[in-house]
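Reopening this ticket.

The earlier resolution said the output was attached, but the attachment link was broken on my side. Pasting everything inline this time so it's all in one place.
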Amino acid sequence: MDVRGVRQHEHLAVPPPRRRSEHDPSTGHFRALTLFAESPDCGKAARDMVRSYLHTWKLPHAIDDAELIVSELVGNVVHHAVPDRQLALPGAARRIDVSLMTYPELLVIGVGDEDSAPPELAAGEVISPDLAGDFSEALLPDRGRGLLIVQRLADAVWWSPGSKGGKHVWARLDLERLWSERWG
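Inline output:
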């Protein structure tokens, strides 16, 4: 099943006018939010931020993919990030920085953490489905697919080291492509 076809919400019922984003192309939009990985609502807060700002910026066609991308990237920080020694304080919460930026034709999502280790794609086990018989569903991993989902949804995914440690993982969405896929 195509990941893009799974999520359709009420905000997509009527197509918006054919435009990329509602802003001055020379300045774009930028919003950032700092979360803490130990907060039980940090994933929801990141999704709510994405939904709110993309709705305000008149980009409803980008909401579903952007929400899923930010959710997966924040989830990766919660489950995998271990702060670098110089950034870690005993008993301190792990920081997550979420950012949204628009340009005339692009939406860029960034999620930063305090772990400078590069993001890793999970390596699947090589097992023949024929060997699994009636239990082929058991071969599907229940973890480690987040970056694969992000790669499938985004037009580009990359990471960059932080200037004082840590890293940012970035995803770029082509707004015109998303508009065409929804209403093209």
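Reporter confirms the inline version is readable. The first strand starts at residue 29 and ends at 36. The CA atoms of residues 34 and 97 lie 5 Å apart.
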